[in-house]
Amino acid sequence: MREQAPVVTFYNKRQWVTFDNAPQTYLVSYSGRFLQNEGIAVGLFQQNEGVLTTFGAVANFAHNIELQRDSNLTFGLNLGFYKSGLNASKVITNFPDPLIETFPSSSYFVLNPGINYGTSFLDFGVSVNNFLVYNLRTSELVVDDPEKSVSVHLMHTGYIEGNGFFDKSKFSGLLRSEFRKDKIGISGLAMLTIPNGVWTQLGYNTIFGISGGLGVNISQSIALEYNYERGLGNFTNFGASHEIGFAYKFSNRNSNYDEDDLGSIIPPASERGIAYSKPKAVQKPKEKTAPVVLKESVQEKPIAVVTPTRDTVAPPKQVVESLVTKDTIVTTSALAKAQPQKDTTKANLPKLKDREFVAIDNLTAVLAVTKTKQDNLLNRLTVTIAQRENDLAQMKQENDLSEQGIYTEPKPFKSSALENSELELLQTEITAIAKEQKDKIRELEIAYSEKMKKGNEQDEILLKEYAATIQNLKEEHLAAVQANADLNHSLEQIKEATEIEKKRRIKRASFVNVDGRLAQDIATLKRIKETTVLSTVPLKSSDFDSGEVQPEVQIIKGNKNVSPGYYVVIAVHNEVAKRDEFLTKTVASGEANVNFFYDANSSKYFIYYESFETIEAAKQALNKKGSAPYNGAMTIVKLEK
């Protein structure tokens, strides 16, 4: 679910190569998303073991639910079909054996469900292998399946901060346990991906032994991997196994992004930056637009919002007002802009229409109502996209500022699952109303065609007007369908860009180790001191939030970035925003020597402006704290190596 672009993979494993007719496996597969929250993979495989062969197909389906910004719940389903039997071409006999021709083969359907919960750095979940196995030859479920098992996994993904070759490398570690009736299997895999497009992996499995592999991106689209495996214990004499994988990655629709900024042996034709290409506001053809500015938007750019035009819709009562006579129905029909009003020489008398024309009018009235609904739905979708674009701009700004050492206040929590559910419902309604319109237009065309066959010279003028009406309705329908397609294309671009910004934020969080945090802290303090001006109004003690209440004296050990001594602390915070607010107000009050240090053990920031070599000197400063408004909660902290 985390992959943005589709991938085709070719895989071959030659197991225990020192033996003749040793097991071989071939697999070709395709994987990719077909909706933003749904992914699919299909594959064909064949495995040969001596004179036996197995071939089949496998299909994977995954549905992802975004619970919060950095937490997801993914449901997976694996459906497999395979057929096992004797490969007669591998059997060598001195004389024809009729038993070979009658050797039975077996065919099965297998269903395996699974679930995974993922956060920024951790994934854990459970799956059931051979949950259901259906034997096609006997037409019944397999009850006592020795291969049935339950698997649990735990995975960590992070990034390495360094100054050399491994700088910004991606590290992944996976632990997996498989529980069967008679045994438990344990496996692990560690992978390191270097930004230049090379990756290496090391694995262990209680059955197959240890493995090591190396992969490389030949280009931005082509990757090649080799893996070597060696059995342990009783499997040592079986020899080595070799795996070769080849993958082709299709270009991502949002070409401004590369998911992990990986390099390749053959560099891309043009280097792609991180900045995303902002989707254009989509306007429906032939419709009025009204500028709407979201107040919370970072860029405060007017967003074009589709609004229905009143002159294209007439209420049903105005469309058809009928007077029934003995042989005809007289109507005053307002077919919106589709039927131009004409002056008559007889004081605009209503036209006489038969029942077939009235039926056409009724269909036109229904289409006018569906047009109103469709306009409203497209308008709601446009507003939703504008909100998503605004959220993306805020996330990008947060990332940009954070890289400069500027931290912003966390945004209020919004339920991503609820937002996505509402969006899916809206898209479903738009699809349904478009289908209803298409069907009604088809009915209208059929009714018009039937009337044309029965028409006479007196109906010629009306028939021409209805032909223009139908053509106009068809054009409006196609325009609405195209507008919906354009809106959804913009939405997909925003979603892909949001995924990249999420990864960018996760990477940044991984890189903030002790040294990285210290550099950011120094930059933040410098910025606050350089940009804060003295307050023209004296600040009060009530203006300062000193944070958590601390003991009068406490000892902190293991901080290598701060000199040992006795520090007179004036505030303690565990939130960056509150820390920066206190620092800013302290500088505005005239205290230019304010400083702070971070304690990794408690994850707290300690703010101070004086330190001493002895506790007596520190206590003296504590007793003489004076009337400064920021000194209301002074305590002493002793720093030891």
From TrEMBL:
Record protein name field: Type IX secretion system membrane protein PorP/SprF
Pfam families registered for this protein in UniProt: PorP_SprF
Keywords: Coiled coil
Coiled-coil zones: 434-483
Xref: NCBIfam families: T9SS_PorP_fam
